[in-house]
Structures are given as C-alpha cells and as structure tokens.
Amino acid sequence: MGCGSLEASDFKSDLKPIWCPGCGDFGVLQALYRALAAVGRPPHEIAFISGIGCSSRIPGYTTAYGFNTVHGRALPIAQGVKLANPDLLVVVAGGDGDGFSIGGGHVAHAVRRNLDLTYLVMDNQVYGLTKGQLSPTSLKGLETVTSPLGSLEDPINPLLYVLAYGAGFVAQATPADMPGMAALIEEAIRYPGFSFVNIQSPCVTFGEEEQQLRAHKAKLKPLAKLHHDPSNPLAALDLARAYGRELYTGVFYRNPAPPQPYDALVRLRQAEQSKLATPRAQLLDTWLADGRGKR
Amino acid sequence: MRDDLILGMAGAGGDGVVSAGESLLKAATTLGYHAMMTKSFGSQIRGGESSCRLRLSTRKVLNPGGALDVLVALNWEDFLRFGAELPLSADTVVVYDEKAGPARTPVAARGLVLVPVPISALAKQAAGSEKAKTAVVLGLLSGWLDLPAPAVLKGLKQRFASKGEAVLTATEKAFTAGLAHAAANGWAAPKALEKPAADAGPKLLCDGNDMCAAGALFAGVKFFGGYPITPSTEVMQILSRELWKYGGAVLQAEDEIAGVGAAVGASFAGKKAMTATSGPGLDLKAELLGLATIAELPLVVVDVQRGGPSTGLPTKAEQSNLFAAAFSGHGDVLRPVLAPTGVADTFRLTVEAFNIAEQYQTPVLLLSDQEIAQRKKAIDVIDTSTLEVAERRVPTMAELAEKPYARFALTESGVSPISHPGLEGGTYLAAGIEHDEKGAPTSGGAMHAKMNRKRFAKLEPLAARADLFELTGNPAAPLGIVAWGSTAGVAREACRAAAARGLDVKLLVPYLLHPVADDVYASFFASLTAGLVVELSHQGQLYRLLRMFTDVPSSVRSLCRSGANPFSPAELLTRLVELKGVR
Ligand SMILES: Cc1ncc(C[n+]2csc(CCOP(=O)(O)OP(=O)(O)O)c2C)c(N)n1
Ligand code: SF4
Ligand SMILES: [Mg+2]
C-alpha cells in the first residue's frame, strides 16, 4: 500500500471508546487517525502498545495490531516487539501515571536505547481510571482523594526527563490545537529513533479547571511562534523547564542528525553474524569434548 | 582398582581449584571416562572460598555422589565452609597442603587416612611461585589415580595457553613435581581407577546452562530478554553471543520486569521468546506471566533455582521455587512447569518447553537449579534427529478471510489460531483485560468463565504425555521413590543400589510437575507399602503440590530438607527401609 491511499477512517475500529464524554483522549485518537493516514503504513504493519489507564485503552480504538498490556510496562514490551520485527511501525501510549510513576524507571532506558518508536503520553495530571488520585505530574498543593490536604510533592517534569536522557525528538501537544497535534504525532512517527510527545489531554471528570480545553486554548503558546530553534538542545531544555507553568506546544527538540536507531544496528549485527550460523543438526558440536566443534 | 571415584577439592578463591577440576574433567573425558563436576562457591565475588567435586567412573554417572573418596584441601578454613557439599566418610583419603598445618577437627578426629603433602613448597620450588599449587595437585592426582599424565597435562596447559611460554613451562614443572611426589609416596588405600571401556564414543562437555541455551537455539528462539542473576546468567551470556547468528536478538533489560516484558512483546510480534532468571527475578516477573497467560502468548521462562526466600543462598541449589513457578501471580492460572534432572535432559526439556509454549500459547516455566545449571558433565552426544520442534498455529488465509478474525475463538481444543503484527487480515487487540473471542474487552462473568475454561482446557492433554514421566523398576514394587530435578539423579542411583541389595524399589521422575498428572501418580502409588517424595526444600513443595491435586496415600511420605545440603543415595534407601519397617 503506497502513501496517501489511506484515510483516517481506515484506522478507526468498531469498538466504542469507554471514555467520559469530552475527555481529551478523544481528540488524541482523532489526531492519531490523521497522523497514521498521513504516514501511510497499513494497519496490519502497525503495533500499538499501551499500559493501563483510561488513556491506555487507545489501541483498541484503532484497526492496528493492539496490545493493551499491564500498568507501566508498555515501553519494555514495545521494545521487544520492535526488536522481534523492526519492519513494524511501533507506537506506544499511556497516561502520566503509567509512564512516569509505575513505569518511570523504563523511560530512561527506552530513551538511551533509542529504538525507532513513538511514545505518546496523555498527561492529564491525574489518575483517571482509578478515579482521581494524585499523579506524578500533579501540581504541588493539589487536593485529590489521596491528597485531601493538598499534595506535598513537586511534580515530575516529563519534558525535562526525556530531554535530559537524550531523546532525539521531544514535543508537546494539546487537543486545543487539533491540526497541530496531528502534525506533531506524524512528525514524531516519521522521526527515525525514539520520539516522545507529551500530550496535555484534559480529564474532564477529575481534572482541574485550568487544565481543561478552554484554559488550554487561552494559554497555549506554539514554540514556532516564539521562534524556537528545535535543533538547539539547550534552548529546548530551557523552555522545557516551564512545564507546569507555561503550555508550550510544538517541537522542543529534534536531533538534526539522528544517529542510527538501535533496531537498525541490530539488523546490521544480525546480517554480519548470520555468516557464523551453524546448521541446527550441528548446534551441539561446539561442546564436543575433543574441541573439534570449537569455532 | 575402582570403577568409580569421587574427588573433592577446596581452596581459596584465587587458588584455582575449580579450573584444576575442569582440566581434570576434560582429561578424564578425553580418556573415555564418564565424568561430572559440580562447583560450589562462597558468595564473595573474588577471593572467598571455592570448591569442586568431580566424579569419575567407567559407568554412567547419575549424580555427584555422596561422600568423597579423595579430598584435596589447600587450607582448612575454606574446606570447613563446604561441610555439606564435601562430605567425608571413614574411607576418605585426605590430601592436604602441609602449609595449612595439622588437620583440624572434625577431619582430625575421624581417624581418616591423612596425606600431608608440601604442595605450596613443591610449587615454589618447581615453578618459583605458590600460584602453581593446583598444577602440583594435578600431578599428584594423575599419579595416584593412574590417569595418564600426558592427557592431564594437556588439559592443564590448554587453560594457560594464553599466558605465555614462561607460565606454561612453570606449570609443567609444577605438574611434574607433583607426579614425582606421588610416585615416591604411595597410598595405603588403593584409589587408582580402572581403565574405561575403549568404545566410549565422543562426548559433549557442558553444563545445564549450556544445554538450556543450546536447546533454546535448537527450538528456534529468536528473542531473549533478561537481567543477570546467579545462577542463570550463563544462559543469557551464551545467547548474547549466539542468538544474532540466527536472526535473533538479546536485550539485557533494566530489570526483570522489562526483560520478561520485552520477551512478551517479541512473542506478540510472532517470535519464539524467552527469559531466564532465578528466584528473586521470578518474583518480579509474576505480573507479566499473568499477562502472557490471558493474552495467550507463548513464552519460555527458565528459573534456575537457588536457595530462598529473598536473596537466600544465591550460589546454592534448592528446589523451593516450585510453588512460585506454578502459582506466582493472581487469578486462576494453569501454568505448565517442567523440570530437567541433569545436564543432558536440560537440552530436551528446553526444546519441550518451547514446544508446549508455542503449541498451547502459554508461558511455560522450566525449573532448573544451581546444581544442574553449573554442573559440568561429560555426556553422550545427543541425538537431535528425533527431536521435534513445534510452531504456533498461525491462521490460514481462509481463516483470515472470515471477518472479523477471532483471535480467541472458542475451539474444541481450546487452542485458537494466533496471528501477529505484520500479518494482513489478522489484526486484533491483545490485552491483559478479559476479552471475548474477537479480543474486545469485557467484564461479563459469563465470558470470563468461558475464557478461563478455554485456557485450562487447552492444557489438559499435557498430563497424558507419558514421555514427560520416567518410570523405572517393577511396576508392582512395594517400595517407591518420587524425585524431581537434581534430586532425581540421587534417586536413580539409590534404585541401582537397591537392586544390588535385592530390594524391590521403583522410581517415578516427573519432568512435568504442573499440571499434576493425577493418573500417573495414582497408578504409581497403588502398589506401594512405603514411598518417598524426595526433594531439596524445607516444605517439600512437590509433596504438597501432589497432596493438593491428587490422592497421596499415607504410606507415601515426604523426605525433604533445605537446600545446599544434597541427599546421598544411601540416605534415601535407609529412610525407605525405615519407613517400610514402620508399616
Ligand atoms: C500494578 C497495578 N497497580 C495499580 C493499578 C491500578 N491503576 C490502573 S490505572 C492507574 C493509574 C492511571 O493513571 P494514568 O496512568 O495517569 O492514566 P489515566 O487513567 O489518567 O489515563 C492505576 C493506579 C494497576 N492496574 N496495576
Ligand atoms: S476519567 Fe478522565 S481521563 Fe478517564 S475517561 Fe474520564 S475524562 Fe478521560
Ligand atoms: Mg493520568
């Protein structure tokens, strides 16, 4: 199937989303359909891996091969998928809790390994699925059912976290700018290496007023308009520090000279090593006591 | 002259007793002996104590054996730390370095044959350094055991080949000094070995972890994800070198969860995938195993058992992970658990683990243990031509044409065709959440019950697999032993000894531990007036598992104890005869 022959609707499955009406994740889904259509890979060549949470339901709403796994482990599982079959387009998605709390330890390793996959975090600063508890991106002072007296913790900064470990593509989007989000997801997918989009996806049921679509519309600042140069990592880091205060959208950083991703290196290694393969029937010869089978 | 000899050596970590044992093993194997070596270490990384036991025989070696015939102690402190692993009998000849000082209790108190040798002094004299101690020891042993010196020296020199001419010459001098000392100082008790049969045939020299990696390669593994942990790490190390050659990949993950997670992902992507670990790692993997069960993804999980709980005894064997292997994780799960009993069958059972995983779309636990995994053995060449390799049932074009594709179709066998990303027409949603036949999430009780039934039913044929059980002896025998894993070798030898004493003892060795094969045990137990289930765990986990799933008559008892303290064949028979007397 060549580019352009696919429509956004080709990626829409028959499952009806369970999300609350108005949930930001609907917007993410629509943007993703558009991005996938623009990229043009047929659904069966896409593996869409997620963890657990409201947001992690998203693979089921596409026609791709989906895997709605367990809480916090989407990234390692996705890396296994990509290493097993580097031809696949691998997209990973989940919530802020899934990615930066229970799964937080995996993020640094996914970044440093730099497999060619795209990680979309639907960051609503709250635990949606379990009904409104504190999340690792909740602002200090936030009152939730598990922080009824106000949170005493500072939030994690997903943008800085991922940038600091050297990710080659880091962006932020919001459903308040649908065309912008679709374009960013497309660009992330096209980036040859680990790409990350932090999506400010409002939770209409448990989220704060200032994190809703209306507030996003009022305060979002496209980085392009600020004349940010996305090839400048230090400028990217500086802007990313404003996470939680400013809503910058667009590409913080795009490595202008992407290195070969891990999966490409794996392929090279396999090709080079395949010359040393032993026929199955002679596999055990290496262990012959007289040393005949030593290679 | 004797046809069987058990030799133990103990020293400080830097002394090289384990490499000396390996040289001797290699030499004995090329000479045509059957041989097995087990190593044991203190848990220090370098330094600390290390020991090995070597069993050389003109007959097939079934287990590391009981008490030592010959002990070589380079110093007493290190030897005494291995009390249980290097047991002495009244007949043990104790060779020790004079430098270590007079024999200590309990060695001194037992009236054993004590053979002090100035090992360090000889090394210093011949090679200019005490470092050549083990070369002296090998010279002594070559002389006393009547093992041809050229073969032993060759094995020894191979080890030092990379160290340069000077070291090689020094090593040879030390060896010759040992040889000369042995010639000049005969033993009171003859310990020389008979010559092996001439037609012994070629041998493989390997350990259980080698054969696990080899079995995985034979089965066509394409992905390994894991995290280093003693005593399983060698599986990962071998595959890290080999797997690329066969179009596969290895990921050293950030932790065990990620390791097994990546393997689950690779399996979802259609490839044969595995992980290997030990107790603490298995604990971490539990949630992902549940995911593989409900998403019906093939996966092989190797657990090389060590003493537990927690860090426990990281370098010692124990058979205490059976419960964790079968049950770790929540929900109703029927997880197949296989256990090899030695080096050679680790190969076959690893292949079998992949076959069952792929055929039934389930995680399979392969329970090895430290003793099997790190036991070096000369084994007969394995005939792989009869081994089958199973592949998962991928949907046919016709099945894919029927829309929509039902990934979890409720079939008669419980096995439904499984597609994978990349396959056109086969897209579906895999999930940890309960689902209907097409993969759509559900929280309905009726569908959940159906799917649970499916996931259990598909594994029913396993218990009827006669080849997953070893039954030896007279089927009507009044005495019987059930033993699994590394303990099975001891039980086999106990049965051999029983036959020699005219005792009618039969043996059941299950390679499939879970699901419990009700019929197999019922018919085994039927003739017994006294029976033992033998295993190295404080609780007796197989015994308890059997009590849970099958009727165990009161004539059958558990013989169990904590790890790092292997059974001896004689002990098994004594207990069995005692039990018979009681009845
Ligand atoms: C191991 C484990 N711990 C806890 C949970 C319960 N749980 C499910 S989703 C979730 C948090 C969801 O928050 P987030 O990842 O931000 O996703 P959202 O629902 O907000 O999209 C929790 C705690 C679980 N499913 N598994
Ligand atoms: S709880 Fe919040 S995140 Fe979850 S579906 Fe509802 S609005 Fe969306
Ligand atoms: Mg959230």
CATH superfamily of the largest domain in chain A: Thiamin diphosphate (ThDP)-binding fold, Pyr/PP domains
Under CATH, the topology of the largest domain in chain B can be stated as Rossmann fold
Q: How many domains make up the 3D coordinates of chain B?
A: 3
Amino- and carboxy-terminal Cα gap of chain A: 44 Å
Low-confidence stretches of chain B: none
What integer value in Å does the Rg of chain B equal?
26 Å
Q: Helicity level of chain A, as a percent range?
A: 25-40%
Order of helices and strands of chain A: HEEHEHHEHEHEHEHEH
The beta-strand count of chain A equals 8
**CATH architecture verdict of the largest domain in chain A:** 3-Layer(aba) Sandwich
CATH class of the largest domain in chain B: Alpha Beta
β-strand amount of chain A: 5-15%
Q: What is the 3D shape of chain B?
A: globular
Structural class of chain A: alpha/beta
What is the number of helical segments of chain B per DSSP (H or I, 4+ residues)?
Answer: 19
Q: List the strand order in the largest sheet of chain B.
A: 6-5-4-1-3-2-14-7
How are the elements arranged and paired?
The complex is a heterodimer of chains A (295) and B (583).
Chain A: H1 24-39, E1 46-50, E2 65-68, H2 74-84, E3 89-95, H3 96-102, H4 104-113, E4 118-123, H5 158-164, E5 169-173, H6 178-190, E6 195-200, H7 213-219, E7 220-222, H8 233-240, E8 247-254, H9 262-273
Parallel strand pairs in A: 1-2, 1-3, 3-4, 4-6, 5-6, 7-8
Antiparallel strand pairs in A: 5-8
Helix pairs in contact in A: 1-6, 3-4, 5-8
Chain B: E1 4-12, H1 17-31, E2 34-41, E3 49-57, E4 68-73, H2 76-80, E5 88-97, E6 113-117, H3 119-127, H4 133-145, H5 149-160, H6 165-184, E7 203-206, H7 208-219, E8 223-226, H8 233-242, E9 249-252, H9 256-268, E10 273-277, H10 279-294, E11 299-305, H11 322-327, E12 337-338, H12 343-360, E13 363-369, H13 370-373, E14 376-380, H14 397-401, E15 429-431, H15 445-457, E16 469-472, E17 479-483, H16 487-500, E18 505-510, E19 512-514, H17 518-526, E20 530-535, H18 541-549, E21 556-560, H19 569-582
Parallel strand pairs in B: 1-4, 4-5, 5-6, 8-9, 8-10, 10-11, 11-13, 12-13, 17-18, 17-20, 20-21
Antiparallel strand pairs in B: 1-3, 2-3, 2-14, 7-14, 12-19, 16-18
The structure holds thiamine diphosphate, iron/sulfur cluster (SF4) and magnesium ion (MG).
Residues 19-20, 23, 25, 54, 124, 128, 203-206 of chain A line the site of iron/sulfur cluster (SF4).
